[in-house]
Amino acid sequence: MNWSDEDMKFMTRALAAAEKGRGRVSPNPLVGCVLVKDGEIIAEGWHDHLGGLHAEQMAIHDAELNGHTSNGATAYVTLEPCNHFGRTPPCTEALMWAGVKEVIVAHYDPNPTVRGKGIQVLQEAGIEVRQGLLESEAALQMQPFLHWCRHRRPMVTVKIAVDSNGSVDDRSQEAQRFTSEICLDHVHALRKECDAVLVGVETVVRDNPQLTVRRVETERQPLRIIIDPNQRTPEDATLLNDDYETLVMGEKFTTLTALLNQLGDQEIQRLMVEGGPTTVTSFLDQKLVDEFYLILSNTTHQQPVASNIDAVRLSSAGLSHTSTEAWGEETVHIWTRS
User: Fold this and answer.
1) Which residue of the set 19, 40, 44, 56 is catalytic?
2) Is the distance from CB of 144 to CB of 172 less than 8 angstroms?
3) If I label 77, which of 35, 58, 210, 323 is the partner at 20 to 30 A Cα–Cα?
4) Rounded CA gap, 169 and 335, in Å?
5) Helices H / strands E in the chain, number of each
6) pTM
7) Which phi and psi (to 5°) does residue 201 adopt?
8) What are phi and psi of 292, to 5 degrees?
């Protein structure tokens, strides 16, 4: 389908609006909407928080507040409008009520409760619908949601930091972070985007981590998960004694797929694995990692603990190097599954 420069501009604006809900709406997806009339944007909306207005509803409300009528407008929406009652009424009804004449959709909704029904309802109501504008960009933005819809288990993100020789820890001293403050800010921003954070019991015993989002603003904390089949988690561990939820998994999982399926049933859409080499290797061995953040520090450990992570190891797990970023003093290599 041929798209005009104006179409591209308006959908780009809708994608930018959707970003305003990042880290606030899971298990719902990021969605943005702009209303256009006579070639001008009259309103925009986004899904801002769980239980709040959906993007289309917010845009219609925004138009009314600014003295505009949505009647005869074109709606640019990053995801197919829903046609079912959930935490809010159907967006299809809102669009029809507002008198929108055309809806341009970036990505269809693979959720079983929608799957084309939103588009079908709009078309049956006489509203012109076109789909596929900036679809790949929308898919990347909503990746955890789309992954969960298709596989019913969370997308797995692994983060691990190593020194100049590939070591994850220095046994010559007490456990401590060896990356920069700016790098830590990035880690917390990444953690904010995840529904759950997982570590093995060795990490709890050695580091006594909090695994909370602290260095960026957030309205929710991820579920913390400890893999502990032999009940070794200390009773005074921070994870067991603060105000946030921690799940201790005592099962001896023969395959981590069972764990991911269990988390998927709880609508966990993105899981961040922050454990040590044993835990990380388990996920890599079973080819369950979808993206890998390898953080390289210039620090050199005196009594190193090998990560056993390198390009060959990541490639054998089905991952490809896609980008390199600077996080403060550290270099971060990002690997993803195609």
Assistant:
1) 56
2) no
3) 323
4) 22
5) 12, 15
6) 0.92
7) -65, -30
8) -135, 125
| Residue 232: both structure tokens together | 């070794």
Nearest partner of 7 among 135, 95, 151, judged by Cα: 135
Amino acid at position 215, single letter: R
Which residues have CB under 8 Å from 271's CB, separation 6+?
Answer: 154, 155, 156, 157, 194, 195, 196, 197, 198, 225, 260, 263
Q: 144 CB contacts (<8 Å, ≥6 apart)?
A: 26, 154, 155, 193, 195, 269, 270
Decide if 56 is catalytic.
yes
Q: Residue 233, Cβ neighbours under 10 Å: how many? A: 18
**Sheet-wide strand order for 102-107:** 40-46, 32-37, 74-79, 102-107, 128-131
Cis peptide before 222 (omega within 30 of 0): no
Q: Tell me the residue ranges of DSSP E strands in 85-244.
A: 102-107, 128-131, 155-162, 167-170, 196-200, 223-227
Chain segment 80-135, per-residue pLDDT in tens: 998 866 666 789 999 999 999 999 999 999 887 666 688 999 999 999 999 999 99
Q: What is the pLDDT of residue 86?
A: 61
The maximal CA–CA distance of the chain, rounded, in angstroms, is 71
